[in-house]
Amino acid sequence: MKHFFFFRWLTFPFRYAFSKIKKKIGKLDRLRLEVFLVIGNGSQVFLKGRVVEAYRQSRPSEKKSALQNILATIRRYAGSSVPDAKVQVQYGSFGAELTADSEGIFESLLYLSDSEEPHPKTIRLSLIPEEGLVPEKAWVKKEIQQVIEPSPRAIISDIDDTVIISKATNLGEKLWLSVSKNAYTRRPFPGVSEFYRLLTVDGEYPVFYVSSSDWNLFDLIRDFLKYRNIPLGPILLKDSHVNLRNIWKSGGGNHDHKLEKIRFLMEFFPEQQFLLIGDSGQHDPELYAEVIRDFPGRVEAVYIRRVGKQDLDRERELNQLLPPNKVAWVKTTQEALIHAKEYLYLS
């Protein structure tokens, strides 16, 4: 991983300069505003997205061949991000101007005024006119996913090897699944849809997905959840840029960003109690243990899918942080379903 960051640091001036030159001479393709996340808590709205050169992406299908899916993956990762692009944000009667970073990513925490009632339900974004920038669309409009009153429960869930079969501990298998499958041919673990619908009362309670996959996979994950009838919710992915040269690193590396995003959710919704779901293949048990210590009384229960051999010493730490039967180590989703019905009194 250190070599990757060194390479990114070493090549950054060239990549950044190339993008700036293309913009200056008007050689950028039409630009796309991709909005990943717009969530609100009644007084604030958090927004995240990126500016990229527009690329054509075919719709997923069960009939697509491995070759067609590989070509779609190439298109997904070949698009160039646009640094320093300026984005105008309009929500209700208020506006803000954001600037994309060196990887084309923009984000902001926007504050809602008490004087504006009712609060806006949507947000509009547009590229600020600049020489060499031609937007694909004049405006992009997104609904604000609001959680104003605490629900009886909210879910924070990992994705790889928790919801979707990813083989994250096997680099070769993980890479092949990533490039040769699409949202309709990737497979969930059996029973995941039923389990998540049980926990969220058919999608009534909020669910947030946090993963070490990169933002290039946002549309794949969203379409996968829709297709497999798994409750939808905000998706928070890894910020570091992944392209065709380092595509194999998607989902790997340091997972501290997951902890940062979970902490953000706990702080953004300070009165909400959460249930955490993950797997033992990476560092979810350790991350979740830290969350429980940092936010006492805020975690209702934890479900961890066992990947590989059982590690009793590793499990002991997490087991000691919550009351008995509030941490479930399971091999299958069916085991998790049985546990939820018995100990969370769900039916």
UniProtKB/TrEMBL annotation:
Concerning SUPFAM superfamilies, the annotation shows: HAD-like
Species this chain originates from: Cyclobacterium jeungdonense
Give the protein's recorded name.
DUF2183 domain-containing protein
From what superkingdom does this record's organism come? Bacteria
Quote the PANTHER family the UniProt record gives.
PHOSPHATIDATE PHOSPHATASE APP1 (PTHR28208:SF3)
Q: Which residues form the Phosphatidate phosphatase APP1 catalytic domain?
A: 154-306
Mention any Pfam family matching this sequence.
APP1_cat
